[in-house]
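User: Structure please.
Assistant: Input sequence and predicted structure:
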Amino acid sequence: MSDVTKTKETAREIIAQATHLAAKDIGDDAGIGTFSAWDSMAHVNIILALEERFNRTLGPDQIIGITSLEAIAILLQNLNGDCG
């Protein structure tokens, strides 16, 4: 499995946990407004999960950018780069 695929799967798992859905039910096009389970509370839970994972507070621009599975995967790559 490539690093990009692993990062997308991690993003998918974070969304699944926040929305209380199975990861297999989170499509590649998942994002705010694409399914009802990604509501404001799930969005907050996604932000908290990312902050806990990296033991840091996300900045306003990072939080605003959390709009889709793809955006979360990119953020994960950027945060992993900052940590390593």
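The two ends are 20 Å apart (CA to CA).
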